[in-house]
Design goal:
The complex is a heterodimer of chains A (about 600) and B (about 170). By secondary structure, chain A is an alpha+beta fold. Helices cover about 65% and strands about 15% of the residues of chain A. Chain A has helices spanning about 1-235, 255-260, 265-270, 275, 290-300, 345-380, 390-420, 435-450, 470-485, 535-540, 545-555; strands at about 240-245, 250-255, 280, 285-290, 305-315, 320-330, 335-345, 430, 455-460, 465-470, 495-500, 505-510, 560-565, 575-580. In chain A, the strands form 3 sheets. In chain A, strands 2-1-7-6-5-3-4 form a 7-stranded antiparallel sheet, with helices on both faces. In chain A, strands 9-11-12-14-13 form a 5-stranded mixed sheet, covered by helices on one side. Chain B has one domain: Response regulator (Rossmann fold). In chain B, helix 3 packs across helix 5. The longest helix of chain B is centred in the middle third of the chain and has 18 residues, at about 65-85. Classes of the chains: A alpha+beta (about 600), B alpha/beta (about 170). The interface of A and B includes residues 379, 407 and 414 of A.
């Protein structure tokens, strides 16, 4: 029983527990749901809070913006107020001005009216005056009539009186004339006889002088004819070709040598225009119109004689060089024609070429002994064969230096001879001129430093690569710069610059504060072997070939070289070189066939 | 004579074995040859010259006809180089006695099966026409010097630095 009770109780308990458990489960689930809902609510609240925060911030920004706008508006209002006040002031001023103008207008109106009244008065006065004038005119006319009539009467009276007087005079004169005629007739008879005799003498003399004159004229004419023939013969026999043209360029004289030179007969050329008949070419084979060229030079200076070299092509197409000297013929200050002298200079050219070739050959031969002296002296000076004493060193140094100068001279002579022979090979390539200049400067640096010269170099932006033969370009820069260094005293200044010169050209400028170039020798400075007196005096070194070479190279490359110097003194010299960017054209041996 | 020459060759070979750089100098002007050799030796080179080759190998012909020797001298210079263990550089003049000049030597030297292509040739001459210089450069020489325009030590320094760069 007990066990049954226990069992039922326990079952009861178990049931209750199960119920409780179920209830708990229900409660737990509800709690879970509530928790979830709470979580969601919390999330929503958080979201709302965030949104609120965003709204708050936006509001804050808006408030700030509003404040700013308000400030701006206030400022604008202030400005407006200022403007308004200004406008008010202006308006006041305008009102004053208007009043003033109105017053002036009124015054003007018064004046105008017064003027109108005055004008009316004037019109009336004028009318009155006109009437008076009319009346006066009528009176005057009447008076004049009376006067005229009176005058006529007076004149008539005077005429009658004069006629009477004339008649009286005539009568008196006739009487006198008769008497004088009678006297004169007596004298004339004697004079006639005298005159007759004198005339006879004169006639004799005249006859004699006439005969003499005729004789003289004959003789003179003969002489003149001889002289003319002689002159013509002289002109025509001149050893050089001679042509004379008139002011229009028409050939009027041509001598035998010219006939031979041009292979044309006088008959073919005389009376024809020179430049149509004789075709001359320049070095490049282009026709040259001598007439045009001369007209220009003659215009400039009436006495210009020009000498140029041209080429003439014979009928067989062979060409020869010819020196042409043209001189204007001037009569009473006007050019009335021109004389042209022509000379075949083929042989001179050949001699020149042979001379240059000789220089070239000799220079090569000279280099061998120069090298020998150079190298032996070098070894001796270096102490390779035993130490020298100071005096020996000094002496040998002079030998070495002189030998170096000789080497330089030979090099320069070779450059000149190849320039003149036309064997100066031009091999253009892209050269950075700025870098090239810098390397020349580096080379000169020891001398620049030794002389304590203040040196500057500037290069404009983008000035750099040009088409040129680097060796030749280097020679140009080197020659000018080394001159500047050589001929600037210690402590002087040298400025070097590269810049654009327009039209695709670059400009190299080298300024120094050196000895300058004497005024009277400036025109010779680019000539071969020339050295100015003032530098020869100061420095025996130098070949007189550097600038000649530089000029030849620059001009061969289509550039220009010139300088400015105020003359001797320490005012210095500035050299300018312009070079076209496209630069030198490739060139080999001009004489090569 | 020949014995003497062989002796000379042997002494040169000794130089070579002692790692002395050997340079072959071909120059027709005796005074110049003298000073070049002296300076090179002073600068630590072993020197053989084309003249000494001809003197050593053909003294008889030299007396009779210098032309013949000179033609031979180039040939023999080539032979001589072959007989040596090595030549490090060649110093060459353009004008040589006889028909053939330095350019002819360079052509033969460089054409020899490419054997000596790497041996630098320094032309030191006064025959400085641009055309001549170009021919040498085109033939593969290392450098061309106008004799009168350069110091000996300058050229030797160039040779030294080129030879060093080969190492």
């Amino acid at each position: 029983m007990k066990k049954k009770v226990i069992t039922s109780v326990s079952n009861e308990i178990i049931r209750n527990l199960k119920v409780l458990a179920k209830e708990k489960e229900v409660v737990r689930r509800k709690l879970e749901i509530t928790a979830k809902e709470l979580a969601e609510t919390a999330k929503k609240l958080a979201t709302t809070a965030r949104e609120r925060e965003i709204v708050r911030r936006k509001l804050e920004i808006t408030a700030k913006e509003l404040a700013a706008t308000a400030e701006k508006l206030a400022a604008t209002a202030k400005e407006k107020e200022v403007v308004r006040r200004k406008l008010e002031i202006t308006a006041e001023k305008l009102a004053v001005t208007a009043k003033e103008l109105a017053a002036t207008a009124k015054e003007k109106e018064v004046v105008r009216r017064k003027l109108e009244v005055t004008a009316a008065k004037l019109v009336v006065t004028a009318a009155k005056l006109a009437i008076t004038a009319g009346k006066l005119a009528v009176t005057a006319e009447e008076k004049e009539d009376v006067r005229r009539k009176l005058a006529v009467t007076a004149e008539e009276k005077e005429d009658v009186r004069r006629n009477l007087l004339v008649t009286a005079t005539k009568l008196a004169a006739t009487a006198e004339e008769r008497e004088s005629v009678r006297r004169k007739l007596a004298v004339t008879a004697k004079e006639k006889e005298d005159a007759r005799r004198k005339l006879a003498v004169i006639a004799k003399k005249l006859k004699k002088s006439h005969e003499t004159l005729e004789h003289k004229v004959l003789e003179r004419t003969k002489d003149l004819e001889m002289a003319r023939v002689k002159e013509e013969a002289i002109l025509l026999s001149i050893g050089d070709g001679l042509l004379v043209t008139d002011e229009k360029g028409i050939i009027i004289i041509m001598n035998k040598t010219a006939e031979k030179l041009f292979g044309k007969k006088r008959e073919e050329t005389i009376g024809k225009i020179f430049s149509d008949t004789i075709l001359l070419e320049n070095e490049k084979g282009f026709l040259v119109f001598l007439e045009q060229y001369q007209a220009k030079t003659i215009l400039k200076d009436n006495t210009t004689t020009s000498v140029s070299t041209y080429y003439y092509r014979r009928k067989d197409k062979t060409k020869f060089p010819m020196s042409v000297m043209a001189t204007p013929v001037i009569l009473k200050g006007k050019v009335i024609g021109a004389i042209k002298i022509f000379r075949d200079i083929t042989s001179e050219r050949e001699i020149d070429k042979a001379k240059t070739e000789f220089v070239s050959l000799a220079s090569h031969q000279l280099r061998t002994p120069l090298s020998t002296v150079n190298w032996y002296a070098e070894m001796l000076l270096a102490g390779d064969v035993g130490e020298l004493n100071d005096k020996q060193k000094k002496y040998l140094d002079e030998v070495y230096k002189s030998n170096q100068r000789m080497v330089e001279l030979v090099n320069a002579l070779l450059d000149v001879s190849s320039l003149e022979l036309g064997t100066f090979i031009v091999e253009p390539e892209s050269v950075d001129i700025s870098k090239l200049a810098q390397s020349v400067i580096d080379e000169q640096r020891p001398q620049i430093n030794a002389k304590k010269i203040s040196f500057s170099f500037s290069s404009e932006k983008n000035v750099g690569v040009i088409q040129a033969d680097p060796k030749h370009l280097r020679m140009v820069v080197q020659n000018i710069l080394s001159n500047a260094v050589k001929y600037t005293p210690d402590g002087g200044k040298i400025e070097m610059s590269l810049s654009w010169a327009g039209k695709g050209n670059i400009l190299l400028k080298i300024l120094d504060t050196g000895y300058g170039i004497p005024k009277n020798q400036q025109n010779k400075i680019f000539t071969k072997l020339f050295r100015a007196d003032n530098v020869r005096d100061k420095d025996t070194d130098g070949t007189g070939l550097g600038l000649y070479i530089a000029k030849s190279i620059v001009e061969n490359s289509g550039g220009k070289i010139w300088f400015k110097s105020l003359g001797v003194g320490d005012s210095g010299t500035t050299f300018y070189v312009t070079l076209p960017l496209l630069g030198a054209k490739k060139r080999g041996n001009r004489y090569a066939k | 004579m020949i014995k003497k020459a062989l002796k000379e060759i042997n002494s040169k070979k000794k130089d070579i074995s002692s790692k002395k750089k050997t340079i072959l100098v071909i120059e027709d002007d005796r005074p110049l040859l003298g000073v070049i050799n002296a300076k090179l030796e002073k600068s630590g080179f072993g020197v053989i010259s084309a003249r000494s080759v001809e003197e050593a190998f053909n003294a008889k012909i030299k007396k009779n006809s210098p032309k013949a020797i000179t033609v031979l001298s180039i040939e023999q210079a080539l032979k001589y180089i072959e007989s040596l263990e090595r030549v490090d550089a060649v110093w060459l003049d353009h004008h040589l006695l006889g028909e053939e000049d330095g350019l002819a030597f360079v052509k033969k030297f460089k054409a020899n099966g490419g054997r000596w292509n790497k041996i630098p040739v320094f032309v030191v001459s006064n025959a400085a026409s641009p055309k001549t210089i170009k021919s040498y450069i085109d033939s593969g020489v290392s450098k061309y010097y106008v004799k009168s325009n350069h110091r000996l030590d300058e050229i030797i320094e160039d040779i030294n630095s080129l030879l060093k760069s080969f190492k």
